[in-house]
Amino acid sequence: MSDLAQRLSQMHRPGLLLRAARLAALSGDAERRARRRPVQRLLEEEAVLNAARMGGGLGYSPSRHVEVMSAILCAARSVN
How far apart are CA 21 and CA 9, in angstroms? Predict the structure, then answer.
């Protein structure tokens, strides 16, 4: 199991977020985002988004969270 796959397996996110990210990962946009940004940077951004989600922050964007998660899923798919 790659480091990215292991990290993804340890994430605990809402099912609706994951389902939306999996559907979005099928698009070309998600693949472009995955290629454009280093995976570590995507993971860091996802952690910030998740903290905002958990904290109920006004700056939380569910659509951005889905975009970032879908890019991470595309990156994980290309590693395996």
Answer: 15
